[in-house]
């Protein structure tokens, strides 16, 4: 069975189960999260953890992807492309293309 909701709802909403699906039969399905201080999405195992990985935006304009422990691994095309930890960033690519912006100020003083 399903629950059909429309309009708006105020308060806390808890789903007990394995899946929360949002579908739109025409166009994009959207999940929007916002609050007066910002918003965050936590993924965790077990559910009692604070977070294992967090995507957060704050009123200070901070945008972060944070891990509680371990490496952050980015995959593209279902293959590992980058690993980030406290000490280093490892890129696992066949070629690397960089655009570098160099800002240089030269002050010449005459005596």
Report on the architecture of this protein.
The structure is a single chain. This protein is an all-beta fold. The protein has strands spanning 38-43, 53-58, 63-67, 72-76, 79-84, 89-91. A hairpin with a 2-residue loop joins β4 and β5. It is elongated and about 80 Å long. The N and C termini lie far apart (85 Å).
Furnish the topology, listing elements before pairings.
Elements: E1 38-43, E2 53-58, E3 63-67, E4 72-76, E5 79-84, E6 89-91
Antiparallel strand pairs: 1-2, 2-3, 4-5, 5-6
SS field, number of helical segments: 0
**Major sheet: arrangement of strands:** 1-2-3
Rg, rounded, reads 22 Å
Q: What class do helices, strands and sheet pairing give?
A: mainly beta
Strand content: 25-35%
**Unreliable runs, pLDDT <50, ≥5 residues?**
none
Largest sheet: 3 strands, antiparallel
- Please bin the fraction of helical residues: under 10%
Q: Tell me the total number of β-strands.
A: 6
Give the overall shape.
elongated
End-to-end gap: 85 Å
Order of helices and strands: EEEEEE
- Mean pLDDT across the residues is 84
Quick summary:
This protein has 111 residues and is mostly beta strands.
């Amino acid at each position: 069975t399903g629950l059909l909701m429309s309009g708006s709802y105020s308060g806390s909403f808890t789903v007990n189960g394995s899946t929360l699906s949002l579908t739109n039969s025409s166009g994009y399905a959207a999940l929007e999260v916002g609050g007066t201080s910002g918003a965050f999405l936590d993924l965790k195992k077990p559910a009692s953890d604070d977070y294992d990985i967090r995507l957060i935006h704050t009123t200070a304009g901070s945008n972060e992807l944070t891990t509680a422990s371990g490496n952050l691994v980015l995959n593209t095309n279902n293959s590992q492309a980058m690993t980030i930890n406290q000490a280093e960033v490892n890129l696992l690519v066949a070629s690397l293309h960089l655009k570098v912006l160099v800002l240089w100020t030269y002050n010449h003083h005459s005596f």
